[in-house]
Amino acid sequence: MSATTIFGVCAAALVGLGLYGLICHRGVLRKIIAFNVMGSGVFLLFGVIARRGGLVVAGAGPTADPVPQAIVITGLVVAFAATVLAVALLLRLAQATGQTTLDTPAPPPAPTGDR
Questions:
Q1: CA–CA separation, 92 and 99 (whole Å)
Q2: Measured distance CA(112)–CA(115) in Å, rounded
Q3: Burial class (CB in 10 A: 0-12, 13-18, 19+), 11
Q4: I want to staple 50 with a disulfide (CB 3.0 to 4.6 A). Which of 68, 71, 77, 93 is the partner?
Q5: Quick one: a GO cellular component term (predicted)?
Q6: What pLDDT is attached to residue 53?
């Protein structure tokens, strides 16, 4: 098994774990972390694609394709900014409602028939 295959399998595992956490957890902070794990898998997958798509230069060995590397670097910056925005919104949600889940609060009980 080559290193490219191992990195590809790890990228798929990260995407799978992130997707599982995104679907199964109710807490918003856990969803944010799961989304970041899934994004890390996608960035690793782009790294593998960059390695596979590189040129072979005589005397220098294989080189990586610079376009996917530039996409990964841009994606890292955007992912960091999105994470900061999501955490800020989560803090605002916690201040406004006192809870950190997206569940709707239970309606108040209906009044009884006492007159």
A1: 10
A2: 9
A3: buried
A4: 68
A5: plasma membrane
A6: 65
For 61, the token pair is 């060995």
Give the H/E segment covering residue 67: helix 66-97
Q: Positive or negative CA dihedral for 59, 62, 68, 71?
A: negative
Q: Report domain extents, the chain.
A: 3-97
Our measurement of the distance from residue 32's CA atom to the centroid of its chain's CA atoms, rounded to an integer in Å, reads 7
Q: Are the C-beta atoms of 29 and 100 separated by less than 8 Å?
A: yes
The residue type of 52 is R
**What local confidence, expressed as pLDDT, does residue 64 receive?**
74
The correct answer on CATH 3.10.129.10 for the domain covering 3-97 is no
Q: Other C-beta atoms within 10 Å of 113: how many?
A: 5
pLDDT in tens, 65-101: 788 888 899 999 999 999 999 999 999 988 988 888 8
Determine the residue type at 2. S
Element (H, E) at 57: strand 56-57
